[in-house]
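S.,

As promised, the 2-acetamido-2-deoxy-beta-D-glucopyranose run. Input:
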Amino acid sequence: MLEGRDTAAVLVSPVANPPAPWTYSACYVDNAFGRVMATELDDNQGLTVESCIAACSARGNTLAGMEFGVQCFCANALTNGAVKGDEGTCNMACGGNAGEACGGPNRLSVYTSTGSVTVFPVPTPLKTGLPGQWAYQGCLPDNVNGSGRTFPNQIINVNDTTVQGCLSQCSAFGYPAAGIEFGQECYCGDVSDLAEHGATLVPESDCNVVCSGDPVHICGGSNRLTYYSWNGTLNDWKTPANTGRYEFFVPGVVVPLLVTLGINNKVSFVEKFGTSEFPNSTGAYELDLSLVNDFSRTWREMHVKSDVFCSGAVVLPDRSARHLVVGGWSLDSTFGVRLYAPDGSPGVNGTNDWEENFQELKLQRGRWYPSALVMSNGSVLVIGGEVGSNGAPEPTLEVLPTPAGGPTYLFMDWLNRTDPNNLYPFLHMLPSGNIFVGYYNEARILNPVTFDTIKTLPNMPGSVVSAGAGRTYPAEGTAVLLPQHAPYTDPLTILICGGSHPDTHIALDNCVHIQPEVDNAQWVLERMPSQRVMPCMVTLPDGTFLIVNGAHQGVAGFGLATDPNLQALLYDPSQPVGSRISILSDTIVARLYHSEATLLPDGRVLISGSDPQGPPPFPEEMRVEVYIPPYLTQGFAQPSFTVDEKDWQYGGSYTIHVTLHQGTTANMRVSMIAATSSTVCNSMGMRTLFPEFSCNGNTCTVIAPPNAFVSPPGWWQVFVLDGPTPSHSNWVRIGGDPGQLGNWPNFPDFTLPGMGPV
Ligand SMILES: *[C@@H]1O[C@H](CO)[C@@H](O)[C@H](O)[C@H]1NC(C)=O
Ligand SMILES: *[C@@H]1O[C@H](CO)[C@@H](O)[C@H](O)[C@H]1NC(C)=O
Ligand SMILES: *[C@@H]1O[C@H](CO)[C@@H](O)[C@H](O)[C@H]1NC(C)=O
Ligand SMILES: *[C@@H]1O[C@H](CO)[C@@H](O)[C@H](O)[C@H]1NC(C)=O
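Predicted complex:
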């Protein structure tokens, strides 16, 4: 026996001259404290030292190790405190060469291409030097009794997982709990996930796998998470006692796709006409808010000629504050240009109707899902879309009124490149006079004359698991401008909440904001209490934003979201970042695709629609609700005021007469909310100003904003706030009609407001 063993030992030996630059290092002990080489290749009965070296070399590794005659391992360093064994214990012949030593039981014949071998110590859990306020907690089981992942958000990184990297990613997206598993899987979630999955700490020794990107630290184990939590409050979501409430408002007659408050204080509803679910519809109705208790009189039937489904809309700065709707569903409708001048008054029917004539007036390019914007110079920018329903991109922009001469639409490569994830791009005029555009997960600033890109902004952060999540249709989020306060010298902030991933349909649970015009502009992320695609955000008169509607998962489109998000939120930009969101009330009505939210003149918010076209149980939703914000449910009477003049010039002084009930003019505020039109929760034209004012008794002088960059020409709802409580609004126009839209379009079958004062 003794004789035989000695004989075997001399029969095998390391290869003295392996293929250059490889050299033999030593016989190492494997598995004393865990595997010492990272990657094990498939067993090979024909293994030789040369074949293993070739395989590891091809993988780009600098170490090759042979074990047990037929196993080949590759790595760049040895881990788990590898120590050298007695050379005589690497005594097994290679499967493919009886003369070569290929390790032994738990012994590795190690070769190196660099001439040296780095050995890392036995890894330990990383407990100090953690980013932010992260703290080590211990080892946690995953998938307890098949209950699913302890934490919902999984990021796999086969080669580069580190504790610091995982923790930083989780907290950057607002997750205060993190676990790392099996060396290469990072999970982000909440501390409450532990209880939900029955996960309680297990012995630390259960977590025994080295991190794929950090050879000296532990990253969980098999079904085991190295668990960390954030020490402190990462998301300071408020749960106020006074939440306001949803209330049923009026039975609807259609599911509106475009909802617009007119200067007649009535609400225009326009629905998909021609492709409607309801053959009894004429496509357009107007809601008289003063008659909601008399269903037979509250809706006025109106008429459109083409299908507005998938159009964009703005309120024009002309004397009549006409609603302009551009684009549409298919063929001729995609070229649609439609106008309505709101008339009548509460309780008194108007007689105006939608006007359109495809033969006379149309867009240069057909557009399905375009956006529109009244520019500072008073003309209208129409941008993007596709040539028809889910068709080829229409990556161009054009101006209305259409300039004379040949085609003047312009190709935008960035729209072409990001189709089909850039529909209803977010458009805003910036205080510099340039134009912000947000589309998919990108944003840039355009020159308002040439439409060339002036500045490319960083990409918007997506979800914690994917940078490929987006913010515009179909991964629909929504964008607003935060309020601008006199003297309007602070940089303007754009806030975008919600969205989704166009492929995975995982909805986003965050808002991001940026000041696009500051140097080195960066997105700042705030987590929301729940995921939401298709959110609507409504500016309230106190400068806060109501967030409602949408779904916990999916994307915009028919039947593409099924888990409604019923919870209203309030976003208050006057609070510090991370402390701005309050959780308000829940509705009982699923508001999915084609739902809208619209500020009413009395400070309530009208909530309409849902047009999912299946699957059950989500109906075509006709019921109209209102949200009564907390500022109206504190038992305070609303203040009131009158305005002497309605046609304001930039920088002018205008008199209002106020009646307050709680406070004095010393703690009064004045706010102005731009007229908008909302489709798929895109409030085109939205903007909020808090102008300067001074009072003498109950007579106050409001200073109009200084120029068309701070405040593009248009109509505004003016409110006064008595402490927290807003008045009803009065309409004013600021900046006139510099684009002379009142004389457009000059065709006999269009009614023109003309150019006089209002
Ligand atoms: C059309 O019919 C539906 C019921 O099928 C009804 O709910 C809706 O109010 C009607 N709309 C109009 C405009 O009459
Ligand atoms: C307004 O006109 C509609 C018809 O479109 C009618 O049903 C309604 O009763 C009228 N309302 C008033 C207040 O006259
Ligand atoms: C637009 O994008 C398509 C698809 O990527 C590409 O084939 C085409 O060349 C682009 N058009 C232009 C004018 O760049
Ligand atoms: C506004 O700017 C656009 C783009 O340069 C231009 O086409 C349009 O004619 C301008 N409108 C006015 C009223 O100057």
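The CA atoms of residues 600 and 606 lie 7 Å apart. The two ends are 112 Å apart (CA to CA).

- D.
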